[in-house]
Amino acid sequence: MAAPIAFYFDFISPYGYFASRQVEALAARHGRTVDWRPMLLGVAVLKVMGLKPLLDTPLKGDYARRDVLRQARRLGIPLGRDLNASVGNPLPPARAFYWVKRHHPELAVPLAHALFHAFWAEGRDLSTPEAVAAIALPAGLEPAAVIEGTTSDEAATLLRNAVAASIQAGIFGSPTLVVDGEPFWGSDRLRDVDEWLACGGW
Amino acid sequence: MAAPIAFYFDFISPYGYFASRQVEALAARHGRTVDWRPMLLGVAVLKVMGLKPLLDTPLKGDYARRDVLRQARRLGIPLGRDLNASVGNPLPPARAFYWVKRHHPELAVPLAHALFHAFWAEGRDLSTPEAVAAIALPAGLEPAAVIEGTTSDEAATLLRNAVAASIQAGIFGSPTLVVDGEPFWGSDRLRDVDEWLACGGW
């Protein structure tokens, strides 16, 4: 069995959302699985790289607003969020994910899809453990357990370690796919990943 | 006749170089021509956006070094420049281009290809008018005229106005293609432009 494709993303990233809807089919076409690894753009972009948030960057922010809507149309992916709305606190959804990945691993990917859908298709706020627990959770996940898990020290530690590992691995953007050590940044590179997997690299 | 595709790029941009090798065939497939418009990343990225140069950005710089080599291999485009070498002064090649575009318009695109090739395939320095004039110029362009044109006030004004117009148009990255008012940033978006032109947009 070939190694899983590492899929790094932030739930607050629209391009991460677009990739989340395509990455499993992409991997399956090549007999691969996907290891979902939320990271934090607030750490990578703002702290480590010293840049501004994408949408707050002059010129590029306006382009991104237009491009996100255009990509959603092209891919037929629902987008119900006001791009100018505050993204809120990105920690609760990411902590919830890592806690579920640890304790209910089979529910982690369904939860990731549910979180992306709640945030990007429904425009919901995910800034608190209660808000995360209030989304349409996958069957088998109780809201009370999600709140308890998301607020646990364990979840905070799991996320902190995952983010540190992502920086250590050189990951700076959402989405980034790593295939057998080869990193591909950007949802517009999924076609490159497809080609790379088909031909074994170039 | 449909409007030309506006092609914004900086000669010091490797992704601009990659696009320069593909954009004419892309346009021709759809019965379009290309209007070549050098811009200055030093103005757009450093001054207007307030960001660092790509290769000096933590994490992203290392990724870009790897990605540039990978894209060159994939596209079969010669790359003979040390990516860590100083890019030098980007003004002379851009001024030379706009001067030639004004006085010998039929030689402007051949000159652009020659400049990209000298910089990226041969790794030459283009930091001075003399260095620009020393490359393999298109037939019909004399080195002495290139030096005189590149150092002229007219060339400086043409470039200054073109850069201001690019910022006004919201252009921030190299390459950017604008098709009927629709901007596409990044050499990995050429496939999107192809699709957009084929179907009339989405």
Oligomer: homodimer
Q: What's the pLDDT, averaged over the residues of chain A? A: 96
Care to count the β-strands of chain A?
A: 4
Biggest chain-to-chain interface with counts: A-B, 30 and 31 residues
- Secondary-structure element pattern of chain A, one letter each: EHHEHHHHHHHEEH
Uncertain residue ranges of chain A: none
Please estimate the helix content of chain A. Answer: 40-55%
Q: How many helices of chain A does DSSP assign? A: 10
Shape of chain A: globular
Radius of gyration of chain A: 16 Å
Main sheet characteristics of chain A: 4 strands, mixed
- Distance, first to last CA of chain A: 22 Å
Q: Per DSSP, what share of the residues of chain A sits in E-state strands of 2 or more residues?
A: 5-15%
Task: Provide a descriptive summary of the structure in words.
By secondary structure, chain A is α+β, with helices and mostly antiparallel strands. Chain A has ten helices and four strands. In chain A, strand 3 (176-179) and strand 4 form a beta hairpin. In chain A, helix 5 (91-103) runs antiparallel to helix 6.
Please specify the SSE layout and strand pairing.
The structure is a homodimer of 202-residue chains.
Chain A: E1 5-9, H1 14-20, H2 23-29, E2 34-38, H3 41-48, H4 60-75, H5 91-103, H6 105-121, H7 129-133, H8 143-150, H9 153-168, E3 176-179, E4 182-185, H10 190-199
Parallel strand pairs in A: 1-2
Antiparallel strand pairs in A: 1-3, 3-4
Helix pairs in contact in A: 5-6, 5-8, 5-9
